[in-house]
Design a protein that fits this description.
The complex is a heterodimer of chains A (about 290) and B (about 180).
Chain A: E1 8-12, H1 13-19, H2 21-29, H3 31-49, E2 55-56, E3 69-70, E4 74-78, E5 83-84, E6 97-107, E7 111-121, E8 127-132, H4 141-145, E9 170-172, E10 178-188, E11 202-208, E12 220-231, H5 233-237, H6 243-258, E13 277-288
Parallel strand pairs in A: 1-4, 5-6, 11-13
Antiparallel strand pairs in A: 2-3, 6-10, 6-12, 7-8, 7-9, 7-10, 10-11, 12-13
Chain B: E1 4-8, E2 11-15, H1 17-37, H2 54-58, H3 90-93, H4 111-162, H5 168-180
Antiparallel strand pairs in B: 1-2
Classes of the chains: A alpha+beta (about 290), B mainly alpha (about 180).
Chain lengths: ~290, ~180
């Protein structure tokens, strides 16, 4: 890894099955639960063998040791015994390690995703590090990098300074925050897997780190990772909320006003919005369907 | 049952007579208070105007409203001047939040996860590192073998040339030449 400046360790799942089938079974069944532990195990291993490789200087401007950040390592499994189709995804598959095959139809640009945010309290100038930002910042990171305020920031709930008590006034420190590459790829069922008379199904695949830009449109790829359900926070962060929902609400309220009075309204009129969810596939490994790594 | 109709802010309200007696007593009491507070002692009491419908008067507040106190801010400079609260109060009983450890990887308390992490680390240590060592050893062997081949190449080529059998083409050509000649 150090020789090629990699942060991803590629593990053949067949080797894991041969070595410890209980561990392989546990990882396969509860992959999303054990993912932080697997990364921590890799981190410990790197710390044991290559302790200098743990730190990275993101700015590369100064050689000050205080500027060093820790690298984010990840584990990529491949050669799973079974490759499923998009149509086989069910509720029981959520969080499990699996491989799916499909044809890439669309790829997004590579964006920075904030993994861990570092915040400074605007009242006492205290710093809160490593605030996890899972699936929060992705669509607004450009705004953050450009210095625009962002409503979707997952800020610390309370300033750790006991004399401060600040909950709202936070400033994101971009230099000390941890970003990673992020890309969304849309895949479609392979033509051979579509049942007769059915329309092809599609799925969003999220790629991170070294996996970005590995799949191109038109490629027939196998993605290894897990099927996840993520909250659609982008709708919550918008100032006007979901546009279609707002229009429906406006139509209802106007109809009610025309009927003679506003009547009893629900929580939506108070600003409470529904939290919407969407499914996606969080991939840790991408390779071509013929087994060739891009 | 007779019902009484009262007009309040343009709305007709139908209420029970018993309920209305209570409301009238409330109205009369409040009007008396207002007239007693009037220093000029008007000949006729001022008309009592209801800003709410009568039905609102009849229902007492189920829960007394708590008084909203202004938020107390604590200044770091005057922290010592603030008297410490007596032990046993809610604030004193509140447990102290665990201090966030400033580590690179956030710690998650999961016993099964910890065991999985240990097992996976052992797997990586025994399999990947050993495989890498074997690979490096194999690469070293391959390199040494390559060097040996490069050294022995001239000798091997000489042996190859001397022991090279005649190709089929030359054999055919020689036989043809022999036949024609």
């Amino acid at each position: 890894m150090r020789e090629y400046e990699l942060t991803t360790l590629y593990v053949d799942f067949g080797h894991l099955l041969q070595s410890d089938d209980v561990l392989a079974d546990a990882i396969q069944k509860q992959y999303y639960r054990f993912l932080p532990f697997l990364r921590r195990a890799l981190w410990n291993l790197v710390a044991e063998h290559e302790p200098d490789y743990l730190k990275i200087n993101p700015t590369a401007a100064t050689t000050d040791s205080a500027n060093l950040q820790s690298r984010e390592f990840s584990v990529a499994f491949y050669h799973l015994p079974l490759v499923s189709g998009i149509r086989d995804l069910r509720t029981e598959k959520i969080g499990t390690l699996m491989s799916i095959s499909g044809t890439v139809t669309r790829t997004s640009e590579v964006r920075p995703e904030l993994l861990y945010g570092s915040f400074t309290c605007e009242m006492c100038n205290g710093t809160v590090n490593d605030v996890e930002q899972q699936f929060k910042y992705t669509e607004v990171c450009f705004r953050i990098l450009l210095g625009h305020p962002c409503p979707q920031i997952l800020q610390p709930s309370l300033c750790p300074n006991p004399t401060c008590g600040n909950r709202v006034a936070w400033q994101l420190q971009i230099d000390s925050s941890k970003f990673t590459d992020w890309q969304k790829v849309r895949i479609q069922e392979n033509p051979s897997e579509i049942p007769t008379g059915s329309m092809p199904r599609s799925l969003d695949v999220i790629l991170r780190g070294e996996m970005v830009e590995r799949a191109k449109a038109g490629d027939k790829c196998v993605f290894t990772g897990t099927f996840i359900v993520i909250p659609d926070v982008s709708q919550l962060g918008l100032p006007g909320g979901n546009k279609a929902e707002i229009q429906r609400e406006a139509f209802r309220s106007s109809a009610a006003a025309g009927a003679g009075g506003s009547g009893v309204t629900g929580l939506k009129s108070l600003g409470v919005r529904d939290l919407q969810y969407k499914t996606a596939f969080l991939a840790c490994m991408v390779h071509d369907a013929d087994g060739r790594v891009s | 049952m007779t019902t009484y109709y009262y007009e309040s802010r343009g709305h007709n309200l139908a209420v029970e007579p018993a309920l209305k007696q209570v409301q009238f007593s409330v109205i009369n009491a409040s009007s008396r208070i207002i007239s007693s507070m009037n220093s000029d002692q008007l000949s006729s009491p001022p008309p009592f105007e209801l800003s709410l419908p009568l039905s609102a008067l009849s229902e007492p507040d189920p829960q007394p409203r708590t008084q909203i106190l202004p938020r107390r801010t604590t200044d770091a400079l005057t922290l010592d001047d603030v008297p410490s609260e007596a032990p046993g109060t809610v604030k004193a009983k509140r447990k102290k939040r665990p201090k966030i450890q400033d580590s690179d990887i956030p710690l998650v308390k999961d016993a099964v996860g910890e065991s999985v992490a240990d097992t996976f680390e052992n797997f990586l240590r025994t399999y990947v590192i050993c495989t890498n060592d074997m690979q490096y050893t194999l690469n070293d062997h391959v390199d040494s073998l390559r060097q040996l081949i490069l050294h022995l190449r001239p000798v091997l080529m000489g042996c190859y040339k001397t022991s090279r059998p005649a190709s089929r083409y030359t054999l055919i050509k020689s036989t043809r030449c022999g036949s024609t000649s």
